[in-house]
Amino acid sequence: MFRGARKEELMLIADLIIADRKSKEEQARLFAESQLEFEKIKLEKVKLEIKLVTVDVIGPIHPPSGRGHEPDPEKTVVINNLPEPKTKKLRGVLGLCNYYRDLSPIRFCSKSNQRATSIMNKRPQGKVQRSVRFQQQLELLEVELKDQLNSNNELLGLLQNFRSKYSNSIQILNNSTQDPKDPDFSNVVIGVLVFACNRVTVKRNLDQLLKFRPSPQQFPIIVSQDCGHEPTTKVILSYGDQLTLIQHPDQSDIPLSGKEKKFKGYYKIARHYGWALNESFFRFNFKSVIIVEDDLDIAPDFFEYFLATHPILNNDPTLWCVSAWNDNGKDSLVAFEPELLYRSDFFPGLGWMLTKSLWTELAPKWPKAFWDDWIRQPAQRRERACIRPEISRTKTFGKVGVSNGLFYEKHLKFIRLNDKAVPFSKIDLSYLKKDNYDVAFVKQVYGVPSVTLSQLQRGNIDHSEPVRITYENKDVFKKTAKSLGLMDDFKSGVPRTGYRGVVSFMYKGRRVYLAPPAEWKGYDPTWS
What is the rounded CA–CA span in Å between residue 359 and residue 109? Predict the structure, then answer.
């Protein structure tokens, strides 16, 4: 889970885990208070008007920790009588250092503590000398405090980066270890509909489906073949009763004219899809179906992924599909965190699950061609989203087909296929519900620093936490996406993997959000 983390981050992780084991309550308080205090404290130069007194030392006043010394009563009186308000900051910092030193394995303010202790232990000498030396000691302490605060701000930045990079994973793993009542999937049946035509390489896809399928009763496989290609039929029939073969009865030609003739393959695909989905939902009576093309490799947790997301798809009316595909799923653009899942306004396809209720809605108006572009139109999407993974659970191995093989060479073959099984069915995925997801998503995206494309590419950023690049219009988005290796096209105004206009990806190990302004009002269907 922590591959690619810096050494400093790993040290922090280790310390945080140790502290958590000792006291979860103290650890939570430590993080919350350190974040609040160190963000607010901006130490200015402290100029104190010191009256001649019989003592020349300020003892740090700190919250009781069960350890440490008790301050001298005379020193306490001096501190309480010092000018306000700036000296409160100094006292607060001194106290904070001691307080966190006692609570945490991470040594906050160690240098300033040593210096403060050294000053505290010295005894007064003459009145004039006391005043001069006291002023000098305070000035030295001030410099060291500033240096230490700078160091602690860097440490705070690392902590914040750790939290933003791994909070999703930690929350997911925490959910999986809280011993929730496991949902009952025993009665769930999801049909697997494989579309085949004239490629005998369908064997590669079927072998993997059968290898990773946990139960033939829970995931019955239906292979729907078009084209009437006999060699492909023989391959499918060789699997016997492990699957069911259905063949599209309408092999008639589709009359087209002019420029449409070159798109005949897309017309046949749409006709085949419509017939096979009708068979799946109305003949076999499945409540949900996973659509798989015959040229897809699948991940070991392919079925686990769809099984676990099935209840959310059925219960959240703002969702209309679950997809195994990340359009921006190249190695260089994803975090190696296979448990991460997202909501997406873009329909991904390439291994996806839909319900009978959705098909009942779409079937009467099913298009004659280009069904995937049609389904992405606002009239069909109706502001609904899909669930998609950080790392794809499918990958196409078919270079030759109706679509141009050039797209495969330039993009598809570089998509990363997950190879680490995730027990999704034992993880609480309720964070994907819209009411839970949107608040956290918007807060995360618009709570990180904004940078320019040039700053990101040149590495001119003085921290390693996530950042946001803002695009104001279509041209800026396309230029930025292309420069960073992202898919730069739109379908009905929606960018690939986009949610609320935001595309989330990794760039040189850093999480980046390519986002519209915070006052975003919705997609513009004219963007293409």
Answer: 62
Q: What is the DSSP string of 145-167?
A: HHHHHHHHHHHHHHHHHHHHHHH
The pTM assigned to this predicted structure is: 0.68
DSSP 419: -
Across residues 337-358, what is the average pLDDT? 98
β-partners of residue 352 are 291, 323
Residues in the chain, total = 528
Instruction: Tell me which DSSP letter residue 501 carries.
Output: T
In the Cβ-directed half-sphere of 319, how many Cα atoms lie within 13 Å?
Answer: 27
Catalytic residue among 15, 372, 428, 488, which?
372
Q: Calculate the dihedral angle through the C-alpha atoms of 21, 23, 25, 27, rounding to the nearest 10 degrees.
A: -70
Residue type present at position 69: H
Confidence of residue 407 (pLDDT cuts 50, 70, 90): confident
Q: Is 372 a catalytic residue?
A: yes
**pLDDT value for 336:** 95
Does residue 158 have a pLDDT over 70? Answer: no
Arithmetic mean of pLDDT over the chain? 81
322-351 residues labelled b (16+ CB within 10 A) or e (exposed): bbbbbbbbbeebbbbbbbbbbbbbbbbbbb
pLDDT 10s digits, 424-483? 999 999 999 999 999 999 999 999 999 999 999 999 999 999 999 999 999 999 999 999
Question: Using CB atoms within 10 A of its CB, is residue 418 exposed (0-12), middle (13-18) or buried (19+)?
Answer: buried
Burial code (b: 16+ CB inside 10 Å, e: under 16) for 245-275 equals ebebeeeeebeeeeeeeeeeebbbbbbbbbb
Higher pLDDT, 3 or 51: 3
- Exposure string (b/e) for 121-160, b if CB count within 10 Å is 16 or more? eeeeeeeeebeebbeebbeebbebbeebbeebeebbebbb
